[in-house]
Design goal:
By secondary structure, this protein is of the alpha/beta class. It has helices spanning 17-26, 43-54, 80-83, 93-100, 119-127, 159-171, 185-196, 228-241, 256-265, 304-311, 330-337, 367-379, 390-395, 399-405; strands at 7-12, 34-37, 58-61, 67-70, 102-106, 131-134, 138-142, 151-153, 175-179, 200-202, 208-212, 220-223, 243-248, 268-271, 275-280, 291-292, 316-321, 341-345, 348-353, 361-363, 385-387. Strand 16, helix 10 (304-311) and strand 17 form a beta-alpha-beta unit. Helix 8 packs parallel to helix 10 and helix 11 packs parallel to helix 12. It starts with 6 loop residues before the first strand and ends in a 21-residue tail after the last helix. Bound molecules: uridine-diphosphate-2(N-acetylglucosaminyl) butyric acid (EPU).
Length: 426
């Protein structure tokens, strides 16, 4: 990437990665076909389609974001090498357990962004009458007969935990109540889908979800919601690089906290029905503004890295606090290698700017830190090389093409995806 180009033009937001992953897992709840539209063409959804096939389902896609999944029969075990490639595979435990009476999954270990514990998921399944066994490598959940509805109080509003438990509860006998449930837009989209399949899920988008279970679920059609995290990434990129970008299919209502911050920082925003125009004039100075991540509708942790890249271009000092994951500042080291001034102290990062970033060779550790480095490279003098860029392909559809269309100077070099990661986009 060669930095220094302003971004101009229009960019269309793809379907939500995190909604698509949970919704694809929900195909295991019924033998009937699920026809999905607006599925983002990214590595993670391709892998989820492979997993559905590996547990006995069928998957057909048209390469344009339409995918049909049908799980006429389902086995209980997700192959280890697949589960290990994507932590979101934990969301399959609920549907497998509810449909077959047993779910086996390779234990999701800690990863780059934190310990990523799952004890809340397992406590929920136990409350629903399952026996859950944990070995060093595997989680095995079994139920004798059907799961039973239960009152589940989550210690913290885990996203995939809420999704997995809601899905299990749709097939369980009786009423399940989940307190302190996650409210993210992807959780809401999953619940909408489940209701179209014939489930009775109430309260999605609030912290108390009630499911009246035990109904036979059927196939349906569903259009995945636009990805507010992808939209937020382009909004922050336009703010950092400067220019005038209109984001189409932008779910503005899901992005209110992030938009509030961008306005405080000094970016001009125009929200219309389904579009967001982001403008920053060349001479306009950005102001450093503190930010702390929080669960929805707070500022999303999945935009924290991108916001940090933006703050390297802002006047003054600010503290960015990461309250969701205990270890999500890897991008700070790479940003500092490009000339940023970021000091980490526990869950706080002190960013002082503005700094003229310099092009460098930097490494990506996860999807969102990759997005932050792209934003930094847009602002940098000279050429940057972003390595392990396949992380970006896990979560962003056509990222290179979209930035090129906005006037950025970047190209993809081959061999970005290591062996074992190469899957056809869904
Ligand atoms: N946690 C526990 N115990 C649990 C579950 C979670 O302590 O039983 C902790 C985690 O260790 C973490 C925090 O709670 O510190 C939040 O974890 P959560 O379970 O909500 O995260 P997740 O479900 O594993 C999803 C998204 C992530 C996103 C987080 C937070 C999917 C597939 N993944 O992960 O998305 O960062 O919620 O919003 O929905 C991404 O898209 O780049 C991404 C990482």
């Amino acid at each position: 990437m060669t930095g220094g180009h302003r971004l101009r033009g229009r960019v269309q937001v793809a379907g939500s990665k995190n909604a698509a992953l949970a919704i694809m897992a929900a195909s295991l709840l019924t033998p009937e076909p699920l026809h999905l539209r607006n599925v983002p063409r990214i590595l993670d959804t391709a892998l989820m389609a492979e997993i559905v096939q590996a547990v006995g389902g069928r998957s057909k896609h048209d390469g344009e974001g339409r995918i049909t999944l049908q799980a006429t029969q389902v086995t209980d075990r997700v192959p280890a090498q697949m589960a290990q490639r994507m932590r979101a595979s934990i969301v399959l435990l609920g549907p497998l357990l509810a449909r077959t009476g047993e779910g086996r999954l390779t234990r999701p270990g800690g990863d780059q962004i934190g310990a990523r514990r799952v004890e809340q998921h397992l406590r929920g399944f136990r409350a629903m009458g399952a026996q859950v066994e944990e070995t060093e490598h595997e989680i095995i959940a079994r139920s004798q007969g059907r799961l039973r509805g239960a009152r589940i109080v989550l210690d913290l509003p885990t996203v995939t935990g809420t999704e997995s438990l809601v899905m299990a509860a749709t097939l369980a006998e009786g009423r399940t109540e989940i307190f302190n449930a996650a409210r993210e837009p992807h959780v809401q989209d999953l619940c909408r889908l489940l209701n179209k399949m014939g489930a009775d899920v109430r309260g999605a988008g609030t912290d108390q979800i009630v499911i009246y279970g035990g109904r036979r679920l059927r196939g349906t059609d569903h259009q995945i919601v636009p990805d507010y995290l992808e939209a937020g990434t382009y909004a922050i990129a336009a703010a950092a690089a400067g220019g005038d970008v209109t984001i189409e299919e932008c779910p503005n209502e899901d992005l209110q906290q992030a938009l509030l911050k961008l306005e405080e920082v000094g970016v001009q925003l125009e929200q219309r029905n389904r579009t967001l125009r982001v403008r920053r004039d060349p001479g306009r100075t950005l102001q450093a503004v503190d930010m702390g991540t929080w669960v929805h509708p707070g500022f999303p942790t999945d935009l924290q890295a991108q916001y940090m890249a933006l703050m390297t271009q802002a006047q003054g000092s600010c503290v960015i606090s990461e309250y969701i994951f205990e270890n999500r500042f890897q991008h700070a080291t790479e940003l500092n290698r490009m000339g940023a001034s970021i000091e980490i102290n526990g869950r706080d990062a002190l960013v002082t700017g503005p700094r003229q970033l310099q092009g460098a060779t930097v490494g990506v550790s996860d999807i969102r830190s990759g997005a932050a480095l792209v934003i930094a490279a847009l602002c940098a003098h000279g050429v940057s090389a972003i390595e392990q860029a396949w992380h970006l392909d896990r979560g962003y559809e056509d990222l290179v093409e979209k930035f090129v269309a906005l006037g950025a100077d970047l190209e993809r070099r081959p061999a970005a995806v290591p062996a074992g990661r190469r899957v056809e986009p869904a």
